[in-house]
Description:
Layout (H helix, E strand, L loop, with lengths): L1 E4 L2 H23 L2 H22 L2 E19 L12 H17 L4 E6 L3 E3 L14 H10 L3 E8 L20 E5 L8 E8 L3 E3 L4 E10 L2 E11 L2 E11 L4 E8 L5 E9 L12 E9 L3 E7 L4 H12 L3 E7 L10 H6 L4 E5 L8 H14 L2 E5 L6 H4 L8 E4 L8 E2 L1 E3 L12 E2 L3 E4 L4 E7 L4 E8 L2 E6 L4 H7 L5 H14 L9 E3 L3 E3 L3 E7 L9 E7 L2 E7 L1 E3 L4 E7 L4 E9 L5 E10 L12 H10 L4 E3 L13 E12 L4 H20 L4
Parallel strand pairs: 2-3, 2-5, 5-6, 6-36, 8-14, 15-16, 15-17, 17-18, 18-26, 28-35
Antiparallel strand pairs: 1-2, 2-37, 3-4, 7-9, 9-12, 10-11, 10-13, 13-14, 19-23, 20-22, 21-24, 24-25, 25-26, 27-29, 29-33, 30-31, 30-34, 32-33, 34-35
Helix pairs in contact: 1-2, 2-12
Amino acid sequence: MKFNFLHQIDFISAFIAISSLFIFIYLFRTYGKIYRGIFILRTSILFLMILYLFNPVLKYYTNRYSSLEWALFFDNSSSIKFHKSPSLNSINLGVNNFLKKFNDKDISFSTYSFHSIVEPLNGQLNGKGQTTNIGNISEFLEQNKNKLAGSIIISDGIPTEGADPSLLFQDLDLKIYTLGVGSRSTLVDIFINSIDAPTVAIKNDRINLSAEVQSIGVSGEKFSVSLYDESRLIASKYVSLSGLNSKVKVNFQFQPRSLGRQKYKIQVSSISDEVNILNNRQSFDILILKDKYKVALFTGSPNKNTIVIKNTLNANSRIELDHYLKTFSNKFSIPIKNFWESAYDLILFENYPIEPLPPNFVRILAKKIISQQTGVMIVGGPNQNNKSLESLAPLIGFQLHDESSSQKDVNYWDFSNNLFESEDLPPLHRKFSISSTEKDSKDIAVFESGWTLLTRNIKKRLRSVIFTSSDLNKIFFYSKDTNVYSKIFSESINWLLRSGISTENYFRMNRDYLQQGEMAYLSGTKVGLADSLGYYVDVFRSDKIVLSADFDINTEKNIWETNFRTSIPGNYVYKVYSKQNEEMIQSTDFKVLDSQIEISQVYLNDKLLKEISLSSNGSYFDWNDRDNIFNEISQKGKQEIKANVIIFKDSVILISLIIFFLCTELILRKKSGLF
């Protein structure tokens, strides 16, 4: 222990204190016994007060020797338990013997396990980790290097997460030894890496798709790659892979047979000793749309809208149009018998009916619409009124409202999401006023007065659209350089035919399941007129949103694309929304499984482990030669010199002593009658 004063005033204080001591001794001898006690107290008080007022600061040093530990890090990722040699049981026995030698040689150590995180080793290794982040060890060592003699990493050297570990241990100023565990030969695995297929296709059109197949530890073997429609084999090809992580792209071409959302599967044949066969197949779905749609157009009396509507429908090569034009003889241009005998995807009433429909006609029409799941659209015409529509409106879930003719004058209007300024749109004559009787109804465009211009309605899965103005032609001629007419009429037709981007689930994930931490790719085919502002996706787990992502348009493929990553296994839901109106257009379930990435890379990567040791002046040893490491490591310690400072003014003890001695002196004087 070594003392010194920090300041010159501390030396002066010490001098005063020593001088006071000699004075005290002299005076103590001159006083009688009666006064000596009081004198001692007063002198003590004076001495303590001098210390307090001058406030000397005393600094002293102490020496301490402390042992340094060796930090042992054991790989506890799942790849450890898949090595053929040594087995996990053998590794645990080796670990116990290894630690016993540390105790026998009196070498201090601490034990940790690592996978995605570093944590204290509790019990035996079990291979519970789904990923391996060796880089986390460098962070731990950086934070604790002053306490450590060095470090030993026991691993197969396969990082599956984080930065390149070979660059992270160079500046630690700490020796790192590595022990390589496992076999240098890789496990065998073949898996489907990705599938490139359209999300939407047209029936009878040829579909082109490709599957990328990847191999691990496979060399020169042939295997089959097959495409299935449910359980029906469509096509199969034989390919071969060679070398570690080699890839091959397999192309297929086929024609879909059925309509709707069809499920397909790509399957790769398994080979002997393959570690994981779950990744040998991958399912995906394609929405198959009709190649032809039959539309019945009813016109009560030709008008300016008639030619516009007819030309629009005829311009669509996928629409077969039957135009039922009412004649003066109260018949139609096409025999009405043809209508009742034909199945239609859409019935469009344009300026029809202009007179109330017979009850029998309405009853048979209702049966036809329900049985054939036919969409219905009504476009207001100059010859219509509330009376002529009163039998048709309830059929599709609407209610008519009576108003005076002055209330139905020309009005400004806009889309419900305010796409345009109403002054920039042509004012329209409102022919009739309606409201929906169904909860599943949505106004697309409204007049400034608040009445509906264009609305979509769903009644018991039957879709219908009503356009309440007789001036559709005005929008057509106004919007030659805009998409106003398309949004009013064409998108309504797409919605009714279930052939537009906003009507069906056109978005699909690249896989029907994901591994923990794996990137998910979500794409949607741009069919018809898509929402101009685009789309976004919210991902939910246990009804709680975990992330959001925007879609970008891929102009080359004409698709919407986005990606996201999920880190926790479980059941998820992704919901796709339109940015234009915040409408959810799709909700789909998917699963995230425990990561299999460790299984795909099971071999001893001694090259990396040697690089880590070399960068820190350590050494590499094979697991079977682990006892040789004790020739290079030993117990280490360090000498610590600690500086201690005493500041008298800050001492509570000093102030307490002064108060105690003052009180004691007062009591003593009182008892001695010296007051």
